[in-house]
Amino acid sequence: MSEALSAWRQRAFPEDVAFNNGSGLPGGQAEIALFHYAIDGLMLDHLTAPIDIGLSVDAAISEFVDRILQ
User: Fold this and answer.
1) Model pLDDT for residues 10-51, shown as the tens digit of each residue
2) What is the pTM assigned to this prediction?
3) Is 56 left (phi over 0), alpha (psi -120 to 50) or beta?
4) Widest distance between CA atoms in the chain
């Protein structure tokens, strides 16, 4: 399972960076990596025992994006 997940993540990351660049969105490779790190943590939180600070998943992502792109 680890190999399949690793292959998927390694393939998806450059695709996400290319999409971001092609769409004219702010941020580069480092910002997309930080976004992935945040989302991976959010997924783990959502799938296990959440720390629940009262933010929905959408609100948490929105807040993170706003902060990382400032």
Assistant:
1) 888 999 999 999 999 988 999 888 888 888 888 888 888 878
2) 0.66
3) beta
4) 37
